[in-house]
Write a structure and sequence with these properties.
Elements: H1 2-11, H2 21-57, H3 79-151, H4 181-184, E1 198-200, H5 214-226, E2 239-245, H6 255-263, E3 275-279, E4 299-302, E5 305-306, E6 316-317, E7 343-348, E8 350-351, H7 355-361, H8 378-391, E9 396-399, E10 414-415, H9 420-428, E11 430-436, E12 443-445, H10 447-459, E13 462-466, E14 485-487, H11 495-501, H12 504-522, H13 525-539, E15 553-554, E16 558-562, H14 567-570, H15 594-607, H16 649-654, E17 665-671, H17 675-683, E18 691-698, E19 709-712, E20 717-721, E21 741-746, H18 753-760
Helix pairs in contact: 1-2, 10-12, 12-13
């Protein structure tokens, strides 16, 4: 537009409209003024501003500068910006301080966490040390008490009953037939702690020895050689034993000769006190030749006695020695079941002599026989039994006449018929076996009756003895009513009814008990001799000798693999099973009750009724002979004999063992070539409280692998090698067992720790 105006002014007129010149000049002046003004503004104002600003920058107060080159902090000199900058700087400084504090706190927290973990470990270590100290203190206290007990023993040797030398003033009874232990036995030779030494005369050193039955003599000598009570030192012997029968009749000495030979025994001491005369019978016709001999104060053990001869509680009725030099064949013994057999009862026998003739024969002993002859019930018995057989109500076999020549027998005694094998075959078919006692009531027992009893028990026929006056073998210690029926002869008419009324359970119990008695006390010569000695020893209240420990031949093995703890085995909830730290192996206290066993238990059980008479209770620390390992009278179980009454849960946890202040147990584990299963079972025992040791009975002839690594469970593991593979090896008294309690298990038994502790408690 300026250029257009300038062109119009130069041309001197108005553009396009012919405007006047004045207007054109005024327009030029305005344009020029406007241009000048713009020039001044555009040129001078910036210069002035620059000068002003430069002047301000040169001022002395450097804090008043606004423009010019400045630092970052100097840009905030403006008041409203300065506040914001101060706030920013304050916040930044606080943030830096907080970050530093945060890092410092984090480091302190980390240090404290480390200290906490260290404290926890210290606490656990302190707890373990405390438990160990408690165990050490407890063990020290027990050791102190044990040392004190050694210096002050609970028991001292008893005072000797009588002087060492024989007392010449030993009172004599009015008659030898009145002999009992209190007036015919010298207790001074049998102290309580003597061990019951027995001296056995050698029969070959005396003339009557040549008349003895060779089989009986050999069996007796073999038994004597292995018996633990027999001693060769006669000076310390408690009982002296002499074998006088069974004798062979052609060379049998006269009664007077035998009496002189007995009285000449070196330790007879004028009256034979503490002597035992044994007359064993191998046949049913053994005669009672000792009846006419003066035996003084000597005890007699035989199978035939007259009432004037038998002294209850002093003499012993023994069983016949059928299996003299051979063991019975147990494979031929019939099974216990079925309960009922073909015949309800059976009897075979023949009466050789009548009562009248037998009494006439015994008239030479009028001084021993008093009163009138008893009524002879044999005729009534024959009539009644034949009537039962003819009634056909039950299968019954009774024969009163032998098909062949009957065996020799005593007067008024029913003789045996046939051979032994034939009689056994009949008894195997019989539920009951009748035994008719001799008609002479003065004959309290005979060899024929004991032979019938032996055969009936051997094959499981329940004996039915007709005659309540009979004295059965070992009758003063065996409850025969649990294995046999003893019925008075006048009740013969009621026998059939009585036998039919007995239940099958009672029949089976009686048969089982009879089998137990036969196996334990009748079957072999060892059993017979050991039972005779046990009866005398029990009568005079001497404890049994300990069983010899079985030497354990250890198999070397390597252990080192740390055993873990199976959570399923160790998960016991809140139940306190025992100390956390396993105690070192500790043997059980000595079993002192051996010396009080016979005095406390024998007569208490003897006088108590009902219940079996426990003649030989068996305990781990009161072992007796194998034949004494069961009590006479009941075969259903054993009565445990312990040192205390036991404890329930609270008492068990308060006292470590329950019965005694400190008590442990041994695990006896039977195995056979199952190494992996065995190792797993051993590992499960890791951490088990009260465990003394583990005895592994290696039942295989093949030794374990040499590279087998056995687990380390914190207690010793003894691997015992056996001579033969037998399941009974677990019951052997290994000498490595030091505790009273024994846990006998197989290698595949899976028991939790609380279950084992429950059994131990």
């Amino acid at each position: 537009e300026l250029m257009t105006g300038y062109t119009m002014l130069r041309n001197g007129g108005v553009g396009n409209g012919g405007q006047p010149w004045v207007l054109r000049w005024s327009s030029r002046i305005r344009l020029t003024w406007l241009s000048f003004t713009l020039f001044v503004i555009l040129v001078f104002f910036p210069l002035i501003a620059h000068y002003y600003l430069t002047t301000i920058d040169d001022a002395d107060d450097a804090g008043k500068r606004i423009f010019g080159p400045r630092t970052g902090n100097e840009l905030c000199e403006v008041k409203h910006v300065q506040d914001l900058c101060r706030i920013r700087e304050s916040v930044s400084e606080e943030l830096l301080q907080l970050e530093a504090k945060r890092q410092e706190l984090n480091s302190e927290i980390a240090k404290l966490n480390l200290k906490i973990e260290a404290c926890k470990k210290s606490i656990e270590n302190a707890k373990q040390d405390l438990l160990q100290l408690k165990n050490v203190i407890s063990q020290t206290e027990h050791s102190y008490k044990e040392l004190m007990a050694q210096n002050q023993p609970k028991l001292s040797l008893p005072i000797r009953l009588l002087p060492d030398k024989d007392d010449a003033t030993f009172p004599l009874p009015k008659s030898n037939r009145n002999c009992r232990l209190h007036n015919c036995f010298d207790y001074s030779r049998c102290p309580l702690t003597s061990g019951f030494p027995v001296y056995v005369y050698n029969s070959d050193d005396y003339p009557f020895g040549s008349s003895l039955d060779p089989l009986i003599k050999q069996a007796f000598e073999a038994t004597v050689r292995t018996n633990v009570y027999v001693t060769e030192n006669a000076n310390i012997a408690c009982v002296y034993i002499i074998l006088v029968g069974e004798m062979q009749e052609p060379v049998m000495p006269k009664p007077t000769e035998l009496e002189q030979q007995l009285h000449s025994l070196p330790y007879w001491r004028t009256d034979g006190h503490n002597h035992l005369i044994i007359n064993l019978s191998r046949k049913s016709e053994t005669q009672n030749f000792i009846y006419n001999i003066s035996t003084g104060r000597a005890m007699i053990a035989q199978s035939t006695f007259y009432d004037a001869q038998y002294r209850p509680g002093f003499d012993i009725v023994v069983s016949p020695l059928v299996h003299a030099m051979s063991e019975p064949n147990f494979l031929e013994i019939p099974p216990q079941v079925p309960v009922k057999r073909k015949y309800l009862f059976s009897f075979q026998g023949e009466k050789i002599e009548s009562l009248r003739s037998s009494l006439q024969e015994v008239r030479s002993f009028e001084e021993e026989i008093e009163g009138n002859a008893p009524a002879d019930y044999d005729d009534r018995i024959i009539t009644t039994l034949k009537a039962v057989q003819d009634s056909k109500l039950d299968f019954v076999l009774v024969e009163f006449t032998c098909k062949n020549q009957p065996k020799a027998s005593l007067p008024t005694e029913w003789a045996l018929c046939g051979e032994r094998d034939d009689r056994l075959e009949l008894l195997k078919l019989s539920t009951f076996a009748l035994i008719i006692t001799p008609g002479d009531t003065h004959l309290v027992i005979s060899a024929g009756c004991t032979m019938r009893l032996f055969e009936a028990l051997e094959v499981g026929a329940i004996p039915v003895v007709l005659g309540e006056q009979v004295q059965l073998p070992y009758n003063d210690v065996i409850r025969w009513n649990e294995a046999a029926l003893i019925i008075p002869k006048p009740r013969i008419t009621e026998v059939h009814f009585l036998l039919r009324s007995i239940s099958d359970n009672d029949l089976l119990a009686m048969r089982r008990q009879g089998r137990f008695l036969w196996e334990t006390y009748f079957s072999t010569s060892d059993n017979v001799f050991s039972t005779v000695l046990a009866i005398i020893r029990t009568r005079i209240q001497i404890p049994a000798a300990p069983i010899r420990e079985e030497p354990a031949v250890e198999i070397p093995h390597r252990s080192g693999k740390a055993a873990g703890t199976d959570p399923n085995m160790a998960d016991n909830g809140d139940l306190d099973l025992g100390p956390v730290e396993t105690e070192p192996p500790y043997a059980s206290p000595k079993y002192l009750r051996n010396f009080t066993l016979t005095a406390m238990d024998i007569y208490r059980n003897w006088n108590s009724a009902p219940g079996p008479f426990h003649l030989f209770p068996y305990t781990p620390f009161d072992p007796v002979l194998p034949s004494e390992a069961k009590f006479l009278g009941s075969g259903t179980g054993f009565r445990p004999i312990g040192g205390g009454a036991g404890g329930s849960g609270k008492e068990f946890q308060a006292a470590l063992g329950g019965n005694v202040p400190r008590e442990q147990f041994t695990v006896v584990m039977l195995t056979y070539e199952r190494e992996e299963v065995l190792m797993n079972s051993l590992e499960r025992l890791n951490g088990l409280p009260y465990l003394n040791k583990v005895v592994v009975v290696w039942n295989s002839p093949k030794l374990p692998s040499e590279d087998l690594l056995w687990p380390d469970i914190g207690v010793p593991i003894m691997v015992v090698r056996t001579e033969k593979n037998s399941l009974n090896n677990r019951f052997l008294p290994w000498d490595q067992i030091d505790t009273e309690a024994i846990l006998s298990i197989d290698d595949d038994a899976h028991l939790r720790h609380d279950e084992i502790m429950f059994g131990f408690r």
